[in-house]
Amino acid sequence: MDFQDKVVVVTGGASGIGAAMVRKFSGLGARVCVADLNMDAAQGLADQVGGMAMRCDVTSESDIVALCDGVTATMGPIDLFVSNAGLGRGQPGHAASASNETWMLNWNVHVMAHVYAARALLPQMIERGSGYFVNVASAAGLLNQIGDAAYSATKHAAVSFAESLAISHGNDGIGVSVLCPQYVATPLIDLADDDAAGHPSLMTADDVAQATVDGINNKQFRILSHPVVGEYVKVRANDPDAWLEGMRRLKIKAERELGQAGIKDFYKLV
């Protein structure tokens, strides 16, 4: 994709992977809207890159419609929509222990936000025969995240919805990629770029942004910023029982070596 003068929207764009994407797309000549709940941070970044900022709660369909309408009215038709907003709450106990509120928040942020964006933009994209969606999922959407069943289940659903978009609308001139990073040094897991030094399994947000651009340019559906994830996926598909046993051993190792350190430290074990 030639990003020059393309209109790009990034949700969750004020920090982490989203902010890195905003800077990357802008550096390639795109006109970018930073959409985020944190309007101060979004406006600050938009000012840096010469873009625009809009407050958006991605769990609200009306907010996403207003975002798409506002960007279109100000910048023109949206060429690329990046559904990047995400969260990770973990679980307090067993796999079903997270509250209904936490499960529904994961569902609304990781799945319905993608649906709302597609619902708002597909009619005009189909009509003009062009457009692109990047739906940010996770390696957990292809594998699993120990200690957060709600996150894993909804990221799997995000991958499935991206597949549906690609199957249904690939012949309409619409591109779809699903980004499935593994461990990234971002505020989501309380890490910064400096933490990635010396840890091959931990990437910076800039690394992931570059992988995203490369994936779009190569028209890749599945963008794996961590290539090793593709090998894990093959193991899982070829022998699910062996993969599950390996994950159970990893869980035991995490409990022994990390204690209550939490999900953010799993990168030290892989």
UniProtKB/TrEMBL annotation:
InterPro entries: NAD(P)-bd_dom_sf, Sc_DH/Rdtase_CS, SDR_fam. GO terms for molecular function: oxidoreductase activity. Gene3D superfamilies: NAD(P)-binding Rossmann-like Domain. It comes from the Bacteria. SUPFAM superfamilies: NAD(P)-binding Rossmann-fold domains. Pfam families: adh_short. The keyword RNA-binding does not apply. This is Short-chain dehydrogenase. It comes from Pseudosulfitobacter pseudonitzschiae. The lineage of its organism: Bacteria, Pseudomonadati, Pseudomonadota, Alphaproteobacteria, Rhodobacterales.
